[in-house]
Amino acid sequence: MLHLAFPCFPEGWLDQDGKHNGIIRHIPYSGDTQKMARKKSTVFEDLIEIAAALPWQAGIGLAFVSYVGFHYLAGLPPPSFVATDLRGFGQAVSSGLGKQMLIVIGSFLQYVFPAAFLLGAGFSFFKRQRQEKLHAWVAESPSQSRLEAMSWREFEGLAAAMFRDKGFKVIERGGTGPDGGVDLELRAGQDKYLVQCKQWKTRKVGVATVRELYGVMAAEGAVGGFVVASGAFTEEALRFAEGRSIELVATEKVLSMISGTAPANSLAADTPCCPACGQSMVMRTSKRGQNSGSRFWGCPRYPQCKGTRAA
Predict the structure, then answer these.
(1) Which DSSP symbol is given to 130?
(2) Angstrom distance (rounded) from CA 200 to CA 307
(3) Helix or strand holding residue 170 (H, E)
(4) 155 class by beta-carbon count within 10 Å (0-12 exposed, 13-18 middle, 19+ buried)
(5) Residue 22: predicted pLDDT
(6) How far is CA 64 from CA 85, 107, 171, 193, in A?
(7) What radius of gyration, in Å, describes the C-alpha atoms of the chain?
(8) Which of 146, 123, 104 is nearest to 12 (CA)?
(9) For 178, left (φ over 0), alpha (ψ -120 to 50), or beta?
(10) Which residues pair with 198 in a beta bridge?
(11) CA distance 207 to 211
């Protein structure tokens, strides 16, 4: 079922002159999510949800491509049922019915798919705008209290804006609740990163969360991952992340990344630059050859740039 929840600001946030800043706290679209989750979604709603999870530009691109494809089917010449004998007539009818079905389907879907993708792109655009405002609000006065004032959905939106601000392409995968697994998928060139967000106010994030993310990373072939928390991590979680391409982003790091004082992909204390093109490099793990399993620094523009450095 389609669930589109946009980040919004804590109630009671006032301007310096004591007036409300005009940001809407509650989004009318949210509805009763528990009831909505029990309803069976339609294909149209699924298409909107797919586009809403992507950057809004991608949704517009999908709308254009789907219109061109289905419009081509709708414009096919009508089938001919002319034949010289009964057998030929049967074959003409058989092939003609299939072609006519494609024309009918194309005539209908040339409007349905683009409409769904454009709606999803619209939701994605407005959601991104709200995320950017939330990011600016925290950057204005970085503090743990502002992180704790958010809902878990708002915190995921803040993380999306934070990584987007650092140059990553962000795909919002999202879970079905405040502990729904992988929330964001990041792209840097050919590299894929997975992000899990934890907006826990009263307890530390444990090793089970980090292990879960590491397993999904291996299954999906991700080169790295982030666990972003509004609090802290247990010692066991910190030890497990050592030596693996997982960065645990606690409160202090979240605030420093938002305020622009820390890099987003610093899987080591200092991130080297590519010797070929000068881009900030990313940590990778070799998957083949005699060095399989070893870690190294690679260029995020691979395969266009193949610069490497030893880890």
Answers:
(1) H
(2) 39
(3) strand 169-172
(4) buried
(5) 41
(6) 44, 15, 20, 28
(7) 24
(8) 146
(9) alpha
(10) 229
(11) 6
> C-alpha angle 13/15/16, rounded to 5°?
130
- Structure token digits, residue 6: 């946009």
Q: What is the pLDDT of residue 284?
A: 73
- The answer to whether the beta carbons of residues 207 and 236 sit under 8 Å apart is yes
Please say whether the beta carbons of 12 and 19 come within 8 A: no
Backbone φ and ψ for 169, nearest 5 degrees, come out as -85, 130
Angle, helices 43-53/56-74, rounded to nearest 10 degrees? 140
Position 263 scores a pLDDT of 46
CA distance 70 to 305: 37
Residue pointed to by tokens 């980040």: 7
Residue type, 141: S
Q: In which element (H, E) is residue 159 found?
A: helix 152-165
Instruction: Give the pairing of strands 191-198 and 224-229.
Output: parallel
Pair of tokens at residue 247 = 């960065």
Q: Give the H or E element holding residue 72.
A: helix 56-74
Band of pLDDT at residue 160, cut at 50, 70 and 90: very high
Please give the structure tokens belonging to residue 224: 């790295």
Q: Is the pLDDT of residue 247 over 80?
A: yes
pTM exceeds 0.85, yes or no = no
Amino acid 165: pLDDT? 87
